[in-house]
Predict the 3D structure of the following.
Amino acid sequence: MTVHYLTQLRADLPRDASWLSPAESCVLQGFRFEKRRQDWLLGRWTAKSALARFRNSEERRIQDWEVIAAADGAPGIFLEGEPQAIPLSISHSGLHGFCAVSSRRMDLGCDLEQIEQRNHSFEETFFTAGELRLLERQPALGRNLLVTLIWSVKESVLKATRQGLKVDTRQIDVTAIESGGGNWNRFDSRDNLQNRKYPGWWRQSDGMVFTIACDRAVPEPAQL
């Protein structure tokens, strides 16, 4: 039940958009601002590259895959026009793209955030009382990292539940964070709206936090 992941940089984007499907090209044309276009392209390139590597079929080209947002904003996966039941989540921040994918049916969400300083009003607005206590119990991680990590876990869980930021982020409660110093470290969280646990994994690299949340415990994520 392994979850796989892939990271890409904006520099990895092809110069032309021939790798997009006709439907994806239509979506791209609808963006007014260049930054939004580049962010969307990076997310789609990362996702389609992950799918191509994940299935590892020489007969399939990256153009054969299509990633179109469903009505709730979650990515819908198509292969040569046919819908595919592949759990997949996409995130991007700055010059980085991040994608998580699994072969097993599950609720899956991933997020990528740049580690930065946020003021206390951010914590008081978006964090639960338990999360505020976590900030005080684990000073060794550094406050900026820990605040960014808690926020990123919330984002991953909200993607996994397909709720997004339409709900109060305090309905997602990060209950435990491991910091063993490994490539990936565990966390535990709960969606209080559905009364369901969402364990997952986190890591930091290049000043960024990466998180993957699932509706069940899974082994350490494997890089594609």
In short: The longest strand covers residues 3-9. Residues 34-55 form the longest helix (22 residues). The chain is about 30% helix and 30% strand. The helical segments are 22-29, 34-55, 120-126, 129-137, 143-160.
